[in-house]
Amino acid sequence: MSIHREDSELARLNASAATNAVIVSPELFAVLQLAQNIGVQTDGAFDITIRPLAELWGFIWKQHRLPTSEELERTLPLVNFRYIQLDPAQRTVRFLKSGLSIDLGGIGKGVAVDWAIATLQSLGVTNAMVKAGGDLRVIGVPPGEKHWTVQLEDPRKKGERMSIPLRAAALSTSGNYENFFEVNGRRYSHILNPRIGLPVEGVAACTVIAPTCAVSDAWATALIVYGMERSLLDFGTQRTFRFTTVTNGVLGYLPSARFP
User: Fold this and answer.
1) Is residue 4 a part of any domain in this protein?
2) What would you report as the CA-atom Rg of the chain, rounded to the nearest whole angstrom?
3) What is this structure's pTM?
4) pLDDT, mean of residues 193-218
């Protein structure tokens, strides 16, 4: 799923899918289907064709820059998940527009965590936590405990972490405090709104709890783009999540009804 390795399956897909339908592995096809489904549910807030925008801002290769309005205007038409055509019968992927490129950074770590958990379970492991960056998943419980205790990062990096219980679930946090750059005191996060091409502002983090880490990872990104008020209105009773804000150095929280 890497876009940094030319020999990866995703890199080969990106190179060929605009000219012909490409047969992909069952594993990659399942990831693409999940991503497309979340894209539909969130009206494009989660969009795996975000790569041209991420490259424009310099987030792919860590060469950060502020794009011009003209560059954004030229790039935005290349970002639309609806131009990805999936054929479940043939297990093929086709791009309906030249210039499209898939970046699975918003779901890839979660998928990797799920695969690691599946491997452990196949080996007979019943109690484990697997963590990759802001994504983790737990099975079973630690010895003598009723649940796992997970600490949520302080977006200000002041060490004021919050602990929550977790059992038989996955948790992911998407935030503006790990991958960003600043120009004239203004922070530009790697979390880009695919509709307007600009970094998301006004929210520091979104934490999502779900049955699998692929789901929690993708929804954490989707909701932070979708927006706090709209997310609570449309998904507040369906999903388990919490937004974190930082106002004048003070943390604020906006949880859905089911968040612990």
Assistant:
1) no
2) 19
3) 0.95
4) 97
pLDDT given at position 151: 95
- Cβ contacts of 15 within 8 Å, gap of 6 or more: none
What's the pLDDT at 5? 80
Give the span between the Cα atoms of 78 and 84, in whole angstroms: 11
Could you tell me if residue 2 is inside a domain? no
Residue 177 lies in a domain: yes
1 has pLDDT over 80: no
Give the structural domain span for 210: 108-255
Average pLDDT over residues 164-185: 95
pLDDT at 207: 98
What is the tally of structural domains in the chain? Answer: 2
Whether residues 121 and 241 share a domain: the answer is yes
- CA 81 to CA 114: how far, in whole Å? 24
Please give the pLDDT value at position 6: 78
User: Where is the domain boundary, 56, 73, 95?
Assistant: 95
Whether 90 and 118 share a structural domain: no
